[in-house]
Design goal:
alpha+beta; Pnp Oxidase, Chain A; 3 domains; 7 helices; elongated; Split_barrel_FMN-bd; coiled coil; Pyridoxamine 5-phosphate oxidase
Length: 213
Amino acid sequence: MSRYDLLASTPAVRRVQQELGSAAAAGRRLREPAGEPEPLTGAAAAFIRSLDGFLVGTVNENGWPYLQYRGGPPGFVHVLDEHTVGYLDVRGNRQYLTTGNLRADDRVSLFFLDHARQARLKLFGRATAVPADRCPELVARLDSPRTDGRVEQVVTVRVEAFAWNCPNHITPRFSQDELDRALAPVRERLARLEAENAALRAELAAVRTDPKD
């Protein structure tokens, strides 16, 4: 059983598992230690680098969860090592809800979803958000690629555990860039056919207007 499942299986969760008939699996989990923080695999690291966005969940001091979307060019979330991911946080609406929540509780849940490949990765970690002017070397390391805008903070997440979700019910969707790449050969062929068609029409028009006819 993965460390992610062990961390996620709270007493309330286990009671529901008992009620809904998965008590045997829950019992096995209870006998296993949570263990040490789990290093990212090569597949997980490559998946994170390939995406242009993710969701981050925090909990505020009133106990309410908060979700925020973070986006940028593919690779804007950098895998710094097998235990750490990071990205440059740019200025937004200046509510700083996620940053404020992290000051009280550094635990986060990250959710990476790829609609095109129908794959998703969930991750538990501990995050820090530090003003960019305090760590210029790390800013330089995370600068390319990064989200456009004025950089305010450097966010790093120490990975505690991660797990892949099943692909069920993920609706295939594609970004504009993905569509452009997939359709490029089709568009090129259409352009060639249109050019050939235009040339044939011109030749036909020339034959029809030939004074020798």
